[in-house]
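Hey team,

Filing this mostly as a record. A colleague (T.K.) asked me to run one chain through the structure pipeline before their review meeting, and I want the input and output archived in the tracker in case anyone asks later how it was produced. No errors, nothing strange. Just documentation.

Input sequence:
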Amino acid sequence: MDDDIPTRMFYAGRRWQVTDMPTRIRDSVWATEPGTGRGFYGWRFQATDETGESFVFDVYPGAEGWHVHHCYA
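Output structure:
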C-alpha cells in the first residue's frame, strides 16, 4: 500500500503489480449486517504478474491481513 492505496501484492505464489487505478469497494457491497451499512470495505484493481498475465482482483482486509475475495480473468 502507498498512501492506503494498493500498489502490489503476493498471491498464488506470484508477485503482482497493480496496473490501473484501484477502486474502493464500499460497505454496501460486502455488508456484514444487512441494512445497517456496517461491514467490510475493500479494493478492486487490475494487477499484472512478471509474465505479463493480468487479472482483476477484489480484495478485503481481515484479521490476518488482506485476502483475495475474487479474481476475474
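Quick notes for T.K.: The mean pLDDT is 86. The radius of gyration is 13 Å.
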